[in-house]
Amino acid sequence: MLILYVKTGCFHCRKVLDTAKELSISFEEKNIADSTVAAELVARGGKRQVPYLVDADRNTEMYESEDIAAYLREHYVHSSP
Fold it and tell me: What predicted TM-score, i.e. pTM, was given to this entire model?
């Protein structure tokens, strides 16, 4: 399961979401505009920075849009038969 912490209007979040759309990947999106979600993010990653990816299936969590996009391309690109 993929969770992406985002903030409305965040350019870097949009880059990750665009990459996900290109790769047909869906996330559970959590917006830090909700103070409960923001507190959850800080408890998880240590800071209130977005985007923040949680990949529970691969036990991976990360910040930085470029790193997240590269991770998605590496682990979630499906080869054509």
Answer: 0.91
Flag whether 14 is in a domain.
yes
Q: How far is CA 41 from CA 5, 16, 29, 79, in A?
A: 7, 17, 12, 33
H-type alpha helices, the chain? 11-22, 35-45, 65-76
pLDDT digits (tens, 9 = 90+) for 34-51: 999 999 999 999 999 999
First to last CA, the chain: 24
CATH number at residue 14: 3.40.30.10
Residue 81 maps to a domain: no
Q: Are 68 and 16 in contact (CB under 8 A)?
A: yes
- At residue 50, what is the residue type? V
